[in-house]
Amino acid sequence: MNMRCSLCIFMLCGLGLLAAERFSPADVKILGDIDYGQTSATLECGETPKYCALVFNAMSGDRVEAQVKGDGKVLVSIADGGLMELARSTGTATVTLPSAGPDPMTFYVVFRDSEGKAGKFTVVLKKL
Questions:
Q1: Residue 5: its H or E element
Q2: Longest dimension (CA), the chain
Q3: CATH number (domain holding residue 59)
Q4: Which of 26, 58, 95, 104 has the most Cβ atoms closer than 10 angstroms to its Cβ?
Q5: How many whole angstroms separate alpha carbon 85 and alpha carbon 51?
Q6: What is the DSSP letter of 22?
């Protein structure tokens, strides 16, 4: 691989890291918890705070899929226990959770309407 390609790959990886978001706890309303294989009840999320979330426990290396359905386009993220975003998408986010030891860890499914409007949502959490 030539130097120019290596530099491009390095810059793209860096941009990916810059795109990751750390959610402020003040901007996230925790609505409850969810386990693998569950579908949440209908959840109401207002315009403030900016995001709503469900908490789940998982093991390092688990491959996780979170699907969030709402009235319109939904932004969904999977975040670690410090609310650092690990994956982001519209509708469904998938990620392999980072390795951090043998004990279960806390993660979040963070979501909102793409236009920041209040709405009703359901969340499905799967271990792939």
A1: helix 3-19
A2: 53
A3: 2.60.120.380
A4: 95
A5: 13
A6: B
Provide the number of structural domains found in the chain: 1
Q: How many Cα atoms sit within 13 Å of 124 on the Cβ side? A: 8
**13: number of Cβ within 10 Å:** 10
Q: How many CA atoms lie within 13 A of 37 on its CB side?
A: 0
pTM of the model: 0.83
The domain containing residue 94 runs over which residues?
Answer: 22-127
Which long-range CB contacts under 8 A does 33-42 form with residues at least 24 apart?
A: 34/109, 34/123, 34/125, 35/125, 36/125, 36/126, 36/127, 37/125, 37/126, 37/127, 38/124, 38/125, 39/122, 39/123, 39/124, 40/121, 40/122, 40/123, 40/124, 41/122, 42/120, 42/121, 42/122
Q: Report how far apart, in Å, the C-alpha atoms of 19 and of each of 3, 23, 87, 95 are.
A: 25, 12, 10, 15
Digit-coded pLDDT (tens) for 96-118: 999 888 889 999 999 999 999 99
